[in-house]
Amino acid sequence: MSRRKILCLFDMDGTLTKPRQAIDPKFDAFLTEVLKPICSLGVVGGSDFKKISEQMNGDDVIHRFDFVFPENGLIQYKYGEEIGSQSIEQYIGEEKLQRFINFCLNYLSNITLPKKRGTFVEFRSGMLNISPIGRSCSQKDRDAFEQYDKIHNIRRNMIEVLKNEFTDVDLTYSIGGQISFDVYPSGWDKTYCLRHLEQEGFEEIHFFGDKTDPGGNDHEIYNDSRVIGHKVTNPEDTRRILQELFKL
């Protein structure tokens, strides 16, 4: 089977990299030098392109990987070229968008956490990213919040409040990474990127992700009938499964 007939499509945080960390150079070399001659490579993440390029060791990720899908595929790169994009601002409209953002900021102003830093609402092309602690926190603060959130369900509780408040807006809420959750129009989860692959002629698309349970940002695509899903726990686990799958 030629390499064009198989695509390995990867989540980033917790799958190719440790959360918000750069990919290990040895793993990067394994993917691009060992795996790429066997199959096509793609990465899909909730983050914008800037964060993907930071974690994937440079902007040339769009050349090292055949397909790069920032923001769940709302922005698309194919063989090094940007081929399209979609905007949450155009889709929802400024009035509803501001109402949602204002409600989030007001909600966060009324909860107390062990620490709060900055950038609580990050506007992206295809989604909003909401972080109760603030995205400018340190890695140590990230780790601490992740453990705190497991006990107190800060993110899950906020999502339930938002669902009840914004019944008139068809939104999906997805927890990913350590400190935040994504909000986007329903259907704009990671399965969105698959519409850009349907005409590529792949016989198999293997998806690798760590947040595959209900509420996780890999859940929908992991369970999509168009892919073969692989649940992983960390980058080392991803490499192990790839070696077993391709007998490397």
Write up this protein.
The chain has 248 residues and is of the alpha/beta class. It has 2 domains: 142 residues, HAD superfamily/HAD-like (Rossmann fold); 98 residues, Eukaryotic phosphomannomutase, cap domain (Hypothetical Protein, Haloacid Dehalogenase-like Hydrolase, Chain: A, domain 2), CATH 3.30.1240. The chain has 9 helices and 11 strands. Strands 5-4-3-2-1-10-11 form a 7-stranded mixed β-sheet. A 4-stranded antiparallel β-sheet has the order 6-7-9-8.
CATH architecture of the largest domain: 3-Layer(aba) Sandwich
Q: Calculate the terminal CA-CA distance, rounded to whole Å.
A: 16 Å
Quickly name the level 1 CATH class of the largest domain: Alpha Beta
- Order of SSEs: EHEHHEEEHHEEHHEEEHEH
Strand content: 15-25%
Rg over C-alpha atoms, rounded to the nearest angstrom: 18 Å
**Order of strands across the widest beta sheet?**
5-4-3-2-1-10-11
Q: If you consult CATH, what is the topology of the largest domain?
A: Rossmann fold
The strand count comes to 11
Please give the share of residues in helix.
25-40%
**Average pLDDT, to the nearest integer?**
93
Number of helices: 9
Low-confidence stretches: none
Secondary-structure content class: alpha/beta
- What best-fitting shape do the alpha-carbon axes yield? globular
Structural domain tally: 2
CATH superfamily of the largest domain: HAD superfamily/HAD-like
Characterize the largest beta sheet: strand count, sense, and whether it forms a barrel. 7 strands, mixed
Give the quaternary arrangement of the chains. Answer: single chain
